[in-house]
Amino acid sequence: MPTAFVCDPRFASHTRPDHPENAARLAAVEQHLEQANLTDQLVKLEIAPATDEDVLAVHSPAYLAQLDAMTGRSGLLGLDTYLAPRSYKIARLAAGGVLRAVDAVMCGDADNALAAIRPPGHHATPFNGMGFCLLNNVAVAARYAQRVYGVERVLIVDYDVHHGNGTQDVFYTEPTVLYISTHQWPLYPGTGAVQDTGSGPGAGYTINVPLPPGVGDKGYAGVFEQLVWPAAQRFDPGLVLVSAGFDAHWADPLAHMRLSLAGYDHLTRELLALASALCEGRIVFVLEGGYNLQVLGHAWANVARSLLGIDRVSDPLGSKNGEEPAIDQLVVSLKRLHKLD
Ligand SMILES: [Zn+2]
To answer: What predicted TM-score, i.e. pTM, was given to this entire model?
Structure first.
């Protein structure tokens, strides 16, 4: 069965050239897919904007009205999140793109899917946009999978270097979505502490793995083996969504981790194996951050290869020299906290 792919030239109208989250990012992704002869192997999906019902399942009417009122002009949400005249429409289209990817996977039209969309989503809370994010695409998709396909448990793994505070907020009190985030600590947005594990019925269904700067392929692989795998197995999801950000690469300008492209590829393949073991391979990769265009292009091509079952990784940038900080104690304490022993 094929691998479904979402990308759309309309995303380019949400852009600001002087901002790191701009249209050149997806241009780099498409160029790398093309150069690697991967575009023709992917099944491109037709997409449409997410409906009111879809987005209202995550975001407040007041916030959506605020975005709508800013349509037609440029502006800022907070200090770092810009709005171009058509940004709200484009954000609805991006979220809708992820929903079509979920459709393809849940209906069995595709084995798996990758959604190369923007603006990204994991910082967007129910009540406001921030961190370059307007609508929380992954959260909208998780709710949609639950409502439309009756998926009882959705696993969201977020390997973007930043903590997905918005995704955490949406599902913090719910036991039906397990949110696992690896992120640099300290770093924007400052959330994602170890002890934030969910509340009420959602207690235990948020797993934050805040990592010191400098953790690379070895540390991340250990976290996936010792925390992500057992937590996912215990949760037994019906669908896996990945907040796929590539800003934990050593060459990213916005953070200080040391993953290589090969290290990222290992994580991607672990997630594929996990989905294959737990939910018949149903997995959707959704683009979040990643601000080095060369890294982003190669990383996304590597995700495409993994999903297509091609056993090859492209890593022309190699690894960064130097020792990784030890995180054994952190992993042990997280295993204890989440009773994963
Ligand atoms: Zn990020």
So the answer is: 0.98
